[in-house]
């Protein structure tokens, strides 16, 4: 089947067509997430229609829509439950109704970090493993887990995906989630500006005039010896490594996958996290394998078919149960 897939990030909208586990066409749009999701829905629809035209397909060739969203999602209703500084209007939108009205298709929606892990589990670095966890390093820090071959969700859809909001620094920086000292608040792209503003060393860094701060620039300047970049790089590696151990202790995975845009610097990040995990994770049965994502920024798109099939099956089962109960 062909599925319209969308991975809605805080910076970019990754939009694609997925068929038989492969992204057969894709494009990228600016997210403009501070302006809300509703103003971006027409662009999302237009991008899907363009991709279909490129592949000489129509909406009639599609089974549905699968969307990855950077927040908590109610697995039963498909409604966004909260926002964390991205697409503030999303909790008030009925995306399933929008999809049916505008495109005539059913829509499945899931947390983006969970979708990335599903993609890696089915087709990437987690193939053949039924106990795994993932950490995505990007605008925020996402986490997710599969335990005994089942995607961890919990009663309200938040089990496994709030690892970025585990406390890693007592009395640390205030986070957008309301907690203090979250991993995300201590080492993610969203907080780079705030981190720079409270350090005296930043005044002497070449990055002071770089405009928007990004981790790729920080790793580049750290390699060149910039003192502030070195300090922030090492601090971030420590935060991500501590979070990795927390995930291992919480979910008992055989494999921990690292993904997200910041993993463009995987040559530095992967060895650092692997070494820290080997020294500090309590796994008396053996070592957890720490691996980089194989699918990169297509991981959540690749999961589109799996999610749509799952949610359509669950919906059909729920409708059948209601019919039996009503007899």
Q: Supply the CATH superfamily name of the largest domain.
A: ATPase, nucleotide binding domain
Measured by DSSP, the beta-strand proportion falls in 15-25%
Helical residue percent band: 25-40%
User: Per the principal axes of the C-alpha atoms, what is the gross shape?
Assistant: globular
Taking strands numbered 1, 2, ... along the chain, how are they ordered across the largest sheet?
Answer: 3-2-1-4-5
The overall pLDDT, averaged over residues, is: 92
**Main beta sheet, described?**
5 strands, mixed
Structural descriptors:
Nucleotidyltransferase, domain 5, 2 domains, 10 helices, five-stranded mixed sheet, 10 strands, alpha/beta, 327 residues
Describe the protein.
By secondary structure, this protein is of the alpha/beta class. The chain folds into 2 domains: 113 residues, 2-Layer Sandwich (Nucleotidyltransferase, domain 5), CATH 3.30.420.40; 167 residues, ATPase, nucleotide binding domain (Nucleotidyltransferase, domain 5, 2-Layer Sandwich), CATH 3.30.420.40. The chain has a 5-stranded mixed sheet, sandwiched between helices. A 5-stranded mixed sheet has the order 8-7-6-9-10, with helices on both faces. It is globular.
Give a short summary of the structure.
The protein is of the alpha/beta class and 327 residues long.
Fold blueprint:
Blueprint: E1 2-8, E2 12-19, E3 22-30, H1 41-54, E4 62-69, H2 95-103, E5 107-111, H3 112-123, E6 132-137, E7 141-147, E8 150-151, H4 183-186, H5 192-197, H6 215-223, H7 227-251, E9 255-259, H8 266-280, E10 289-292, H9 299-302, H10 304-326
Parallel strand pairs: 1-4, 4-5, 6-9, 9-10
Antiparallel strand pairs: 1-2, 2-3, 6-7, 7-8
